[in-house]
Amino acid sequence: MQKRPSKNTVREQLSQEVEDFLLHGGAVTEVPRGASGLQDGRYGQPVAFDKPREERTPVSDVLKVIDQRREEQRKTHKPAASKKPKRPRKKVIYDDFGEPVRVVWEE
């Protein structure tokens, strides 16, 4: 497992890289305080918003046709009948003390 570099070593490495950049002809442009990063007073806009807004195709009549079809299917479609007919069930009758007295078949 490699040991992470400490903050001091990272700072030293960064300052060394800056010095090397400046010694080899690099230049740092100074920006006045309070200068904005906005372009023409606006934030940089994504490429997707370069074009003017396009007209949308109206689809309300298509949606009405789809809804009518759906309603027709609901009217003609009958709910599925229960698959199993109800079978009689056993019901145990208890007396006042909780003892079973008899068994009755109930539908």
Automatic annotation (TrEMBL):
Residues 50-74 have a biased composition (Basic and acidic residues). Residues 5-39 form the Transcriptional regulator SutA RNAP-binding domain. Residues 32-93 are annotated as: Disordered. Residues 75-91 have a biased composition (Basic residues). It holds the Pfam family SutA-RBD. This is Transcriptional regulator SutA RNAP-binding domain-containing protein.
